[in-house]
Amino acid sequence: MIVITAPTSTIGRRLVDDLLEAGAPLRLVVRDPARLAPHVRERAEVVVGSHGDAAVIDRACAGAEAVFWLAPADPAAPSAEAAYLDFTRPACEAFARHGVRRVVGISALGRGTPMAAHAGPVTASLAMDDLIAASGVAYRAVVCPSFMHNLLHQTGALREQRAFFMTIDPDLKSPFVATADIAATSARLLLDDSWRASGEVACLGPEDVSPHEMAQIISEVLGTEIGYRQIPGAALKERMTGFGMTGAMAQAMVDMFDAKNQGLDNAAPRTPGSTTPTTFREWCESTLKPAMS
Q: Is 98 helix (H, G, I), strand (E, B) or coil?
């Protein structure tokens, strides 16, 4: 039995389909089962509730061989540590109590770099990895740079202002990854029962790309001129708190992007094992362009 947390997330939906296609028995932890596709509800067990709830995750882990762990984004959290470490502690206790053998979790690049010490959610994610590994399970952290998918939050700006906005230096070339490739990597690890101990598996995409290059590719795919505008961290923080994010979480996001500007995502070497297939252009054609229709 494989337990999947956050099965209605962008990564989780793709992962569930990949695992069902492989014939794996699944148990899904979900707050709202109505958000699951009908074919998923028919073929998987469902545990209703938050996987941050000790009773819920304990029930889900009973008899489980492996768990997919994704700490959800929590803009209302009092700190990044609370959003990742505190949220994960009940699960670590459940892993140990029920003898879960393997856990695959979604995390961030940057381990061993000086930038990772003050990088908000990245710092908290790496500490979360250590917490899970210390529970005694074999653990693989799927470590990722920024997601291409995050641009879907800017479809309004792309339509109305013909631009997208980030705090990243416009000429900084760095890796970006498609969530479908993260799901595929996670599925491979969950289906493989031969690995032991703990470690990281990087998903770096096939290329490094700068925001200026992204703007050029988006322009070509959409057939209209799209620009990139770099915004200062203070403006990003003001925007996020305006949307209801706590000040601490907004500052943590600013700290993360500051670290990325210092090369946080560029420290891991691109190898055959860390090179995922989807290019930014392919993602724009398959995902961004339809979302703009």
A: helix
What does the block give as tokens for 89?
């502690």
CA distance linking residue 195 with residue 84, whole number of Å: 25
Measured distance CA(162)–CA(224) in Å, rounded: 8
Tokens at 207, concatenated: 């290329």
Pairing of strands 174-177, 208-209: antiparallel
Provide the domain count of the chain: 1
Range of the domain at 85: 2-147+176-204+263-275
Q: Which amino acid type is present at position 210?
A: S
Block mean pLDDT (10 aa), the chain, length 293: 97 97 98 95 96 98 98 95 97 97 98 96 98 97 97 96 97 98 98 95 98 98 97 94 95 97 94 97 98 93
What is d(CA 71, CA 213) in angstroms, rounded to the nearest whole number?
A: 31
Q: How many CB atoms lie within 10 A of CB 26?
A: 20
To the question of pTM greater than 0.85 for the whole model, the response is yes
